[in-house]
Each structure stands twice: as C-alpha cells, then as structure tokens.
Design brief:
Layout lengths: L1 E2 L3 H20 L7 H28 L1 E2 L11 H15 L18 H16 L13 H11 L25 H13 L5 E2 H9 L10 H11 L4 E5 L2 E3 L4 H9 L4 E5 L4 H17 L10 H13 L13 H12 L3 H11 L10 H36 L7 H14 L6 H11 L7 H8 L10 H22 L11 E9 L7 E8 L3 H15 L5 H20 L9 E3 L1
Antiparallel strand pairs: 1-2, 3-6, 4-5, 4-6, 7-8, 7-9
Helix pairs in contact: 1-2, 4-5, 4-8, 4-9, 10-11, 10-14, 11-13, 12-14, 14-18, 15-16, 17-18
Length: 564
Amino acid sequence: VGLSNQSWTISEFALEILATKKVYDESSELGGDSVARLEVRARLSSLQSQLEAELNRAFDNASWHYHTNPEKKLTRRALSILASDLADNCYPDSPKIHSELLNRIKPSSNAIAGQNALLKNMVTNEGKKRLGINGFPPEGGLFESLLDATSLYDREKLIFTSPLKNPTNKYNLFPLWNAATNLLQENAHRSVTVAEIFTVWRTPPYGVRDGLMPILAVAYILSERKHLTFYRDGIFQSRLNDVDIEILAKNATSIQVRYMNLSDISKKLLSGMAATVRELDKDNTLENLEPIDVARGLISIFDKIHPWAQRTMRLSKDTIRIRNLFKKANDPNKFLFDDIPALLNGTQDLTSPATVKQAVDLVHNGLNELVNAYNVELDRLQTIMLSELQVPNTSPQALADLRDRALNIKGVSGDNRLEQFIIRLMEFNGIENMGGLASLATNNKPTKLWIDNDLDKAKVEITYLAQNFKQTETVARVKGRTDKRHSFAIIIGANINSEPLQHNFDILESEKKNIDSLVYEIEKTISGNYGKDVILAALAEVSAKAIKQNQNTPLTNDKAAINV
C-alpha cells in the first residue's frame, strides 16, 4: 500500500474529469455549438494531463508499506521490481507468453483480426507447415510467439502437442493444461463450457489475460482431442471448424467439452464395435480406437443405409430399437457407454465381459440387418421376376438369354409400360439392375421414397409385367421376329369316370436343343416297332403322368387319349 499527501488532488481532478465528460456526453446545449464542444474537449484533455501529472507525483512521494516491513520511499525502478515480485508470488503458474499483441485484457482491433485469422488456420490447416501461413502477417507473428516458440505446434510432425508430455517446458504451459484437465476430469459426468476453463485460467495462480484465452483454448482442445468430445450449444460436433472457433472467440459459454476416461472393459467395448465397423465398412480400417472415431464409423455405416431401410417396419424388434438409437445419437461417449448398454433390458453394467459381448452382438446384428435389408428385398423381387420369366438361375448364360429374349420382342407390344420393362431387361445383369425395375413397377417412384406398401405393389406389378412379356414372346412373329417362345396345350381324356387332364405351357427357344435330343431318343426307340395307336397311347400315358406329378396327384394306370 502506498500513502501520499497528494492524494486529495487526485480525487478532485478525477471528479472534475467525470463531471466534464458527463457535460460533454449529455448536454443538449452543446449539440449545435461546435466552438463550445471544442472548448469542453480541450478542458477535458487538460484535466486528464493534470491528473496524470498528479498521479506521477503521488507515486514519487508515496511511502510504501509491504507486509511487516517498515514504510519506505521507493524509486520507480524499485517499485516495478516490487510489483513484479508480488505478481510472481500471486501467479507462480502463469505461462510465459511473449506477445504484446494479445497478452492483455483488451487487445486492439488489429490484434483481434490477427487472432481470428490464426484460429481459423488452426482448425483448417493442421498438418501444414506454419499452418499454411505465408510471410509475416499479424497471424504469422502470433503463430511464431504463441504456437511455434512454445512447441504447442510440432514443427516436424505438424500436429498440436500437449505440454502435459513436457512438464519442463520453459514457457510454463504445463500448469495451465493440467488445471483444465483436472477441471474436466472432476466434471466427467457432464460437459464443461470453455468459459469455465477461462475462469480457472484467469484466476490465481495462473492469471492468463483475456486476449490469449481463445488461442490457448483451441490449442488445448486440439492437443487433447483424443480424450475429449466437443459440443456447440449442447450438440455434439465431430470436429472443430471455423464456425466453432468464431463462436468460441465471441461467446465461450456456447462451446463445451467433455472428458472421457476409459476403463479396460470400455476399451473392450470399443474394440468390439471397431470390429463391426471394419466388417460392415471395408473402406474404414479404423486404426484409432478412440470413442469419437468408433462412433463416427458406426454412424457412417448407418448414414449409408438405404432410406427405405431407415423407415421400414419389416425388421426384427431389436433392429428397430437399434435404428431408433442411431437416429437420436449426438454424443459418442453417451451413445457407446450409456445408450447402447441401456438397450440390454435396462442393464448398463459394462464391468461384465458378457454384457460387453451382448452389447456388441446387438449392434452388429442390428446394423447388419439394416445394411442388407434393401438388397434382401430386391433379391426377393428378382426371384419372383426370374421365376415368372422362366429364367432358371442368375448365371451369365441365363441372363444373356434373357437379354436376347428382350431384344427380340422390343417394339412388338405397343404398350409403353411393357416396352420400358423390356428395355430394362435388355440391360439386365442381376441384382444391381433391380432397383430400376422396382421403381418402374411403382410408377417410377424412386426407391429412396418407398414405403412398405410400395414394395408390395412392386411385387404384384413385376409379376404382371413378366406375364405380359411371355405373352408378347408368343406373337413375336407378327413383326417378323424369331419366336423365342412356343405355346402348347395338352388335353388328355383318361378313364370315362375321371376328369380330363389339361396343361398349358410355354417352351423357350433356348430349350429347343433339349427337346430335339429327347425327340431323337424317342423316335429311335419306337421306330418300326409299334403301331400308330400304341405310340400315341404311350405318349398320352407319359404325358398324363407328367401332368399329375406337376399337380401332385396320385398316378394311375388308366388308358388315355391325347389331343395336342
């Protein structure tokens, strides 16, 4: 404490300055009198100069009292040394930052512009030399003094590094990082606003100036990100971006972080979930088993699921529960360690390996069903269509024959809808083309907009189009095309007491070789050995047996007559 007998003049000048400023700011009489305003401004400037002079004289003449030391006079130099010693005692853990631009309570507008530019480079250009800054604009100087000299940005690895790994750093950043980490660990059950971290850093024993806060906070988040999750206004964000740092610089309360402390069991859960990600997303090797990376991998798989699968109710009960959970996921820590275990009949105890396995299996099976749900339905549609078109399988030869059949009857029907179906079959290569055919069957409604009723409609319509396709094949000759299909009808009148047997069927051109071979064998057997009636009766008998086998009816030895 310094006492000066000049202090009464300081109070008088201070009061007069306040009164003069009030007159200048609030007096309406000065509004139209520029000369009067000029005189008042001159008076205000004179008073401020006199006040400054009185303050200097007071410091020079003051008697200083420090703890139990006797009062004594101090020179300006001795007073500065004393003030520095007091500051060292009060703020022993203050970082040693040499930046006159930002190391102050209220930086200038130019300094703020440089700060904002550096913050943007920090979140967008990590991995680049000098964060992509060329030359020495204001942000370049700030980078050198705040990030490069302090080793917060590694020159070789080009990543942000934590002082927690280097407690002896001469810039004394370890206590600052340690205080922030302790605050987050003590509040691991909730998210902590960056403003709360600022409050800790601002008070003794740290005493960080407000101008440094945003850059140090972003450097802390980036260097400790593997332990942190990040939120904007309570909503999880996968990474910091330029919007986030702009908000942080203006309103640190809107940005929150949360610390994640993983047990061995939790790490096993992460490992199991990571295996699910690698299996269902071959492009994601997921080398980092951090909660944010694992959760991002799971969400990425869910986001790629066909939109119909994200709406349909034709899924198992557990899969629907998993789907609903993914739709609401916004926090990787809560999603992995709270929400998923909560699905296990209310069990959230992750201390049991059995519970961990159950949780992993639940997510794996649910995601696997969701990923494959759309293709499973397309496969069913394909099976129905190929069965109706009498395509035996999906071998390259069978599909090539189908494409040839479609090409043969293109333009024959005169039905626009059927012609669209035929054109699509001309390019049909399997399941990858079923989406377009299914969309056609629902009046060209995109499959991503489907509901379950559209799927039912597609099954019926594809069956109808396939039947029309076969009918068109039987009349291809009307336009001079080769008949790829031949229609037959057999009526067999057996015993007088039984109903006649009737069977209508089509034969594809591709089956002609098999027919010719069988005809040859039959003719070779009967040639010259039997009369006409016996031959026809035998053929009728064989035909009747074939029809009855198709109808699953008991076979009889009734004599039969054939009418083809």
